[in-house]
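Q: I'm building a small set of examples for a reading group on sequence design. Run inverse folding on the following structure and report the sequence directly after it, with nothing in between.
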């Protein structure tokens, strides 16, 4: 169990890095592709099996990572709540891998609250890295 938690925390740090790197001039593809790939390996580390369902979750997470649900201008708190909800809801296919729907609901709620909290941090490195970390760290709620 300790090794599993350590692996998830390591992957969460990697996710924080790719999420932040995607928010720089290096291009958003770091975030868009990096976070779902790390999500895939985190699911395997948690012994969540069902490749097609994990793959579908990764595709949905890719979509959630590519948008803040805003039309123009800087994102507002409502956009960050939507972003957190979309990230949480992207894991719904894991239900068919044996993950309890209540765990999925609690994780979605945690992301809908946690993402806007990190958004409120004025330092971009901490704010974006924290959001990326949270995406993977909250997977511990599923097991």
């Amino acid at each position: 169990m300790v090794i599993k938690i350590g692996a998830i925390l390591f992957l969460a740090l990697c996710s924080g890095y790719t999420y932040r790197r995607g928010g720089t001039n290096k291009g958003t593809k770091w975030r868009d592709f990096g976070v779902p790939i790390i999500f895939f390996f985190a699911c395997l580390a948690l012994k969540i099996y069902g490749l097609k369902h994990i793959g579908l979750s990764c595709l949905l997470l890719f979509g959630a990572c590519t948008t803040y649900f805003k039309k123009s201008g800087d994102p507002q708190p409502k956009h960050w709540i939507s972003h957190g909800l979309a990230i949480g809801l992207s894991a719904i296919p894991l239900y068919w891998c044996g993950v309890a729907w209540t765990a999925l609901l609690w994780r979605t709620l945690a992301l809908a609250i946690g993402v806007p909290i990190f958004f409120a941090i004025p330092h971009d490195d901490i704010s974006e890295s924290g959001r990326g970390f949270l995406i993977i760290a909250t997977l511990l709620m599923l097991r």
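The chain has a mean pLDDT of 94.
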